[in-house]
User: Fold this.
Amino acid sequence: MSTDQHKRGLLGSIRSNFLAGLAVIAPGVLTVWLVWNVVTWIDGIVMPLIPARFHPVVLTGWDVPGVGVAIFLIFTVVMGYFTKGFIGRTLVNWGERIVEAMPVVRSIYNAVKQIADTILARSAPTFDRACLVEYPRKGIWATAFISTTTRGEIGDRLGADGEEMISVFLPTTPNPTSGFLLFVSRRDVIELDMSIEDAAKLIISAGLVYPDSRKGKLVAAPPLESAD
Assistant:
């Protein structure tokens, strides 16, 4: 073996080991980084609202991270318990009536409240199951999520001939929080057995990770063979 071949083999081995180590380290490092930033962000908002004499530094002499998060969680639980009562609901309704009188603030508050109710409320509807739809043209298939049966004026107009229409959310890759709302015939949709979580991972990974129905777990997609 020549010196150049030996160097290329050594560099290839180092590169392979580096990528393997990066694949192991990156998820843990990114998770710790994200959690730490969320904790410090909440602490930065909550701690200035607490009187200085009650700060951990004053009481214990230690700057303990996460105290603001604990206070925020306790405050949120107390507020949730309080607003379930008659007095709490009355105060919330009174505050919302005040907000409704503010033109710009009203629009922002209603939008944020609708999003929060949809995401956090236990009774909020969720996606039914994953599916395949032909988009953006015939012969091209995309992974989507079935939302519900199309109702209201849209359902009446599209299903006038008795055909059942369903509402489908088609997410984008790699950011599945944005996408398109499609109204399609149920017969034009192929329902999948994979879970919503597995379908989301498939979309986020841009097809690099997909659920294997035979093994019941996620596996890496095999590389494409070059066409000669």
About this structure: The CA atoms of residues 165 and 186 lie 6 Å apart.
